[in-house]
Specification:
Layout: H1 5-8, H2 11-28, H3 41-55, H4 67-71, H5 78-94, H6 99-111
Helix pairs in contact: 2-3, 2-5, 5-6
Protein name: Group 1 truncated hemoglobin GlbN
Keywords: Heme, Iron, Metal-binding, Transport
GO molecular function, one term: heme binding
Length: about 120
């Protein structure tokens, strides 16, 4: 049996570490940091972690809004989307996640583009 992406990312603990680094990357990235100004970083990490856990094959713990509702009227542009993808890849690399898993996460995140950019 093949392990789920959730398992290969280190389960809940591994994903929480990745998401902590990811949100920290967003907060310090000049391309997107203004989007997070005034945000509750701990809540953001919790919700993003839950989304990532559920979306990677882990327990169904995400109870937040869907991607379109979350990003509607934010007018996110392509450069911001790419910056977020770069932040995600950097977070995965900082947590020593393998190339195959990085590619899978990138594919999943990129598949969400139409639900995030320009809506």
């Amino acid at each position: 049996m093949t392990a789920t992406l959730y398992d290969r990312l280190g389960g809940t603990e591994g994903i929480r570490r990745i998401v902590d680094k990811l949100v920290d990357n967003h907060l310090s990235n000049p391309v997107v940091s203004a989007r997070f100004s005034g945000s509750d970083a701990d809540n953001l990490k919790e919700m993003a972690g839950n989304f990532f856990i559920t979306g990677s094959g882990g327990p169904e713990i995400y109870t937040g809004k869907d991607m379109v509702t979350t990003h509607k009227h934010m007018n996110i542009n392509g450069d911001e989307f790419v910056a977020v993808l770069d932040d995600a890849m950097n977070a995965l690399q900082a947590n020593d996640i393998g190339q195959r898993e990085q590619e899978e996460v990138l594919y999943i995140l990129y598949s969400l583009k139409d639900q995030v950019v320009g809506i």
